[in-house]
Specification:
binds fe (ii) ion, single chain, 65% helix
Length: 331
């Protein structure tokens, strides 16, 4: 769901300089011509490393992103809502798998990525370290969080690394469904009883600002943006995407009679865009550091899932071994 580089580490500038200059120039010319770079093609080490970090963070976010919503599958208000939510959460597992596979083409193993997630070394989207307190949160997540994911991911269909770009095509189609199902939940609640409307407003109040944080730090504090834009790993800056999100989402809130919790939000005729208040970046960095409200629970849930899955991995290994032996015996 999330694609902004959270490492905060600046890619070493000398990394690009020590590469073979002729190869680097040829690579940059291909990227500038909007050609896709494929796994077997030559690429600068810094490009490979940035992509591994970004794609694996993205994959982890899809997988951890299943937890806040999975929490509501058994408590969905009716069978129809349950079936929709189940399908949505399964889609997120699929997104995680496509992305782990895309990252593997860059030479990192699935085990290394899993280990980085479980040990807490790897980052994932800050948004999933907030709790889902009511059913309206499921609406708010689909509408805002998947909505923000679409904003991030649509341009990534043209990112320079082929396997990542192709994974995005299918993911984006599914994200549109996720966004619609969330908005539809909010629409119904907002048109319901006073208590339902209050619940919808409360969810919007809690999820609005964390959703704006999903686009990552402001451009002047995003150390890797410039390089990533030049190599077309990113196609838009964090602030550009955040603005786009506000411009699309604010009228959607108004259309269903909910108010965005930002007194500074105002249409700016001259800019043709909304002005909006400052994000609390202290809170963002605290969550990135692992201090989010339910960060520990999220990690524990992943560790437990991994441990509980040990017998499946073992069974798959033994089955593969048996088949391989049977094949040798038949030859
Ligand atoms: Fe997703
Ligand atoms: Fe999604």
């Amino acid at each position: 769901m999330y694609t902004t580089d959270l490492s905060g580490k600046k890619a070493k500038p000398e990394a690009a300089i020590t590469e073979n200059p002729a190869k680097l120039a040829a690579f940059e010319a291909r990227v500038a011509a909007d050609e896709f770079i494929e796994p077997k093609d030559w690429m600068p080490e810094a490009y490979r490393k940035t992509l591994i970090r970004q794609i694996s963070q993205h994959a982890h976010s899809e997988i951890v992103g299943m937890l806040p919503e999975g929490n509501w599958i058994t408590r969905a208000p009716n069978l129809r809502r349950k079936a929709i939510l189940l399908a949505k959460v399964q889609d997120e597992a699929g997104h995680g798998l496509y992305l782990y596979c895309a990252a593997e083409t860059l030479g990192v193993s699935r085990d290394e990525m899993t280990e980085a997630l479980l040990s807490g070394k790897a980052k994932y989207s800050t948004i999933f370290n907030y709790p889902t307190l009511t059913w309206a949160d499921i609406g708010a997540i689909g509408w805002l969080v998947d909505g923000a994911a679409i904003m991030n991911q649509v341009p990534l269909q043209r990112t320079s690394y082929g396997p990542y770009a192709r994974a995005m095509v299918r993911i984006c189609k599914e994200e549109s469904f996720h966004q619609r199902q969330g908005y539809e939940i909010m629409m119904h609640l907002a048109a319901g009883t006073d208590a339902q409307k209050r619940m919808a407003q409360d969810a919007l109040d809690r999820w609005w600002w964390p959703s704006l944080m999903m686009f990552g730090p402001p451009d002047d504090k995003s150390p890797n943006t410039e390089q990533s834009m030049r190599w077309r790993i990113k196609r838009d800056t964090n602030d550009e995407l955040r603005q786009k999100f506000v411009d699309i989402t604010a009228p959607q809130a108004e259309a269903i009679g909910l108010s965005v919790p930002d007194p500074a939000l105002k249409w700016n005729e001259t800019r043709g865009a909304y002005d909006f208040g400052d994000v609390d970046w202290e809170e963002f960095y605290a969550v990135v550091r692992g201090e989010g409200p339910v960060a520990k629970e999220r990690n524990q849930a992943r560790v437990k899932a991994w441990e509980n899955g040990a017998w499946v991995r073992e069974a798959a290994r033994v089955h593969a071994e048996k088949r391989a032996n049977a094949k040798i015996a038949a030859e």
